[in-house]
Amino acid sequence: MSSCPNHIAIIMDGNGRWAKNKGLKRTAGHEEGAKVVRDITKHCSLLGVKYLTLYAFSTENWTRPKLEVEFLMKLLERYFKSELPIYLENNIKFRAIGDISKFSKSLQKIIKDVEDKTSNMSGLTQILALNYGSRDEITRAVSKLVSSNQTINEENISLNLDTADFSDVDLLIRTSGEVRISNFLLWQCAYSEMFFSSTLWPDFNSNELDEIISDYSLRDRRFGGV
Ligand code: IPE
Ligand code: IPE
Ligand code: MG
Q: Quick one: pLDDT at residue 87?
């Protein structure tokens, strides 16, 4: 696609409602949602998207019932174990953003390991936001600047965000019908095009993504100019 966005970010929402609609436990929705992550990542890789950032666990998601949080942590471990060969086969680099120091040592190790093993991949970079909150990220960035006595300016803040290596978000998508940002990439989405879909994340697919991208390609991005 000619005007394919360089960086797509997705708030993958609606797993719990998808499961509830089917009379299943919320965890079944997360399980199904993880499969869609793989499909959408492969599709973006084929389209030539450079960065795909997916919101997987927010700094606020710790407030969920303990069993759901535990399930999500285990699902992440399983996901990374099964995903490593897929990343390698598809030339996909994996990176995490967010404060993963709050995760178990074993999960942190798996995440670092997948980052290391895919670091030479040159195709799509899949970025998972894990214990990610934009306010937390900006606060950490500014603290780093203050403690190293650096000037507080836009460039230095950007360079100290978890996303320092990636370009700003071109297209932000949220599924499930909610029209809010929920503490995701506040800095990086300053000029992104936004698209809100009523589809619940486990039902999201590459055809819908293609439609959203073709809508995106028709938008006039002015960045404050005329
Ligand atoms: C998004 O789906 C996945 C995570 C936040 C981990 P939800 O679990 O928020 O699903 P709903 O919004 O309750 O339907
Ligand atoms: C945002 O979804 C976080 C993720 C998708 C990981 P939430 O379901 O947590 O957000 P709210 O509570 O609807 O704002
Ligand atoms: Mg939700």
A: 98
Segments making up each domain of the chain, as ranges: 7-133+168-217
Residue 148 is predicted with a pLDDT of 98
> 78 CA distance to ligand 3 centroid (A)?
21
The alpha-carbon radius of gyration of the chain (Å, integer) is 17
- Out of 3.40.1180.10, 1.20.1560.10, 3.30.1060.10, 3.40.1190.10, the CATH code matching 7-133+168-217 is 3.40.1180.10
Q: Is the pLDDT of residue 85 over 70?
A: yes
Instruction: List the structure tokens of 84.
Output: 């490593």
Distance 65 CA to ligand 3 centre (A): 13
Assign 161 to helix, strand or coil.
coil
Per-residue pLDDT band at 3 (split at 50, 70, 90) = confident
Looking at residue 115, the DSSP 8-state letter turns out to be: H
Instruction: Report, as an integer, the average pLDDT of 175-195.
Output: 98
Q: Is 13 considered catalytic here?
A: yes
Protein residues placing their CB within 5 Å of the ion ligand 3: 13
Ligand 1 neighbourhood includes 15 CB (under 6 angstroms) = yes
pLDDT confidence tier of residue 111, bands split at 50, 70 and 90: very high
pTM above 0.85, yes or no: yes
Q: Which atom of ligand 2 is nearest to the CA of 61?
A: 9
- Measure 28 CA to ligand 3 centroid, in angstroms: 14
Q: Are 106 and 32 spatial neighbours (Cβ–Cβ below 8 Å)? A: no
Question: Which one is catalytic: 13, 15, 162, 170?
Answer: 13
Does residue 182's CB lie within 6 angstroms of at least one atom of ligand 2?
yes
User: What is the Cα–Cα distance from 102 to 3, expressed in whole angstroms?
Assistant: 38
Please tell me the predicted confidence (pLDDT) of residue 1: 46
Which amino acid type is present at position 120? N
